[in-house]
Amino acid sequence: MAERERIDTVVIGAGQSGLSVGYHLARRGLSFAILEANERIGDSWRRRWDSLRLFTPARYDGLAGMPFPAPARAFPTKDDMAEYLETYARKFDLPVRTGVHVDRLSREGDRFVIVTGDRTIEARQVVVAMANFQKPRIPEFASELRPTIAQLHSAEYRNPGQFQAGGVLVVGAATSGADIALEAVRAGHRTLLSGTHPGYVPFRIESSVAHYVLEPLVLRFVLHRVLSLATPMGRKMRVKTHSKGGPLVRVKPRDLVDAGVMRVGRTVGVVDGLPALEDGQALEIGNVVWCTGYHPGFSWIDIPIFGSDGEPVHDRGVVATVPGMYFVGLHFLYAPSSTMIHGAERDARHVVNAIAARSRRAAA
After folding, report:
1. How many C-beta atoms lie closer than 10 Å to residue 254's C-beta?
2. Domain architecture of the chain: domains with CATH
3. Per residue in 250-301, pLDDT tens?
4. What does each C-alpha distance from 187 to 165, 195, 285 come to in angstroms?
5. Which of 85, 209, 308, 361 is disulfide-compatible with 42, CB 3.0–4.6 A?
6. The pTM is what?
7. In Å, what is the CA distance from 269 to each residue of 171, 276, 280, 285, 295?
């Protein structure tokens, strides 16, 4: 058996959360390595749909030690963010190993065992720096649709050029569904948007009012501090967003109506090979886009840390039942801003403080 490599702390994932953890670990002089499944840092951003732009302006999109290189009021593209992350890792000489896919994470005694292909790593501490949106969720009845209907999940969507002739049914009316429906109808497809209205942010995020008044109030105060797990309002909101998704941000309901997107009820099954609504109506369309969310995708973690909903049980990313195990990057890990760059950085700092404290106790 090949000798196992030993590393004090292993960070799994080199997105904004993983790199933030790496930055703070390096500043404290702690030994670590970051494992990234993609061949390049930032590839998870590069693979998202072509027109994607961040919802937060550049002044909120920089990680610790490196402001985002764009005008403060600009909204970076997904490729801008990918390049920024790659540059960030290079600037701070973070020990990222790309092209390393973790197949299994388990525990032997007081050590974590990370299996990556034909290699095994032992670690005293491990940080899973990944969102709980890893595996696309598609209804089982999707397999009953006619083979002539083109299907794809929002994770596979890039641009309207992927659609074949005919109408487009977008299933799921939250942010991704609204954005894709708007692109489809503007590309000349008859477009139906199926699902429950999730609500919307009642202002234009690109406006001057948003920049000077609402951004500091909403982003830095409400979403970052008020609606956290430390407050009753925050705990209530977390339950709601987990079950229904967040409100529309850039696209407004009026935009969809004006563009010609037709709102329909929930898609619940199949009739004669066609997608069917709650009222039994079958829809003659040529394409279906499933904007139906994701499974957590943590089946590779072979450690009993999950609740009945499949989500890891933690306190601000610290797994109390398994000393040395941490999470960052999860949806609403501590506040709605946890899914934003500045919130991810705060969560990473909190986890590294816990790691450093544990290291001090071990040294003592």
Report:
1. 9
2. 5-134+296-363 (3.50.50.60), 137-201+247-290 (3.50.50.60)
3. 899 999 999 999 999 999 999 999 999 999 999 999 999 999 988 888 999 9
4. 11, 22, 15
5. 85
6. 0.90
7. 12, 5, 9, 14, 20
